[in-house]
């Protein structure tokens, strides 16, 4: 009888630890990233596959809402003088020039405000796979003139030849552009 009681206590403690890990951390969430090859010519696209498998932190959602926003933690770095430097994959400009007039854009993050009648929270098991096709373009900050004002904006340019790595969470894959 004592052995059964000890066994039940161990099961309850194990479940409690597992529940706390899934509720407050993503220690049980594993990231994977791979690329379709390790060497590319400059006119090819890099196919990056990345995935989440495991339990994520506790998720809360409103089932009667149609709001959704997913940002990716996928990053690409270029090796420059022995240091990995993150490259910009998107235009993050807040300003632009339209017919000689400087305009400011407010479209960085989609905003969604709705009322929620019921909120459901639970640990979420993820087995998600994503694909990103990188066209070997990056953005660089440039100074421009609009009317009589100077401003900074981002220009799309070809990626330099060299060594790159892509990361997603703790996973990474290295490749080269020749």
Protein architecture, described:
This protein has 178 residues and is mainly beta. It has one domain (2-177). The protein is built from 1 helix and 12 strands. A hairpin with a 2-residue loop joins strand 9 (137-146) and strand 10 (149-158). The longest helix is centred in the N-terminal third of the chain and has 23 residues, at 2-24.
What would you say about this model in short?
The protein has about 180 residues and is mainly β. The chain has one helix and twelve strands, in the order H-E-E-E-E-E-E-E-E-E-E-E-E. The chain is elongated, with a radius of gyration of 23 Å.
Strand count, sense and barrel status of the largest sheet are: 5 strands, mixed
The residue fraction in helices comes out at 10-25%
Shape: elongated
The total beta strand count reads 12
So what's the oligomer here? single chain
> Measured on Cα atoms, how large is the radius of gyration?
23 Å
Task: Give the secondary structure arrangement, pairings included.
Elements: H1 2-24, E1 29-35, E2 39-40, E3 46-61, E4 75-80, E5 83-86, E6 95-98, E7 101-104, E8 120-134, E9 137-146, E10 149-158, E11 162-168, E12 171-177
Parallel strand pairs: 2-12
Antiparallel strand pairs: 1-3, 3-8, 4-5, 4-11, 6-7, 9-10, 11-12
């Amino acid at each position: 009888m004592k052995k059964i009681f000890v066994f039940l206590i161990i099961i309850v403690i194990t479940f409690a630890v597992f529940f706390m890990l899934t509720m407050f951390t993503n220690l049980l969430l594993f990231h994977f990233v791979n690329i379709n090859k390790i060497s590319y010519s400059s006119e090819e696209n890099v196919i990056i596959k990345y995935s989440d498998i495991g339990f994520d932190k506790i998720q809360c959602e409103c089932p009667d809402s149609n709001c959704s926003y997913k940002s990716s933690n996928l990053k690409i770095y270029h090796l420059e003088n022995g240091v990995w430097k993150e490259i910009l994959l998107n235009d993050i400009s807040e300003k632009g020039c339209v017919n000689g007039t400087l305009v400011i854009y407010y479209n960085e993050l989609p905003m969604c405000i709705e009322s929620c009648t019921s909120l459901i929270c639970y640990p979420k098991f993820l087995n998600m796979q994503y694909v990103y096709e990188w066209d070997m373009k990056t953005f660089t900050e440039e100074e421009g003139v609009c009317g009589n004002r100077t401003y900074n904006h981002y220009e799309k340019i070809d990626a330099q030849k060299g060594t790159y790595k892509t990361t997603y969470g703790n996973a990474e894959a290295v490749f080269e552009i020749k």
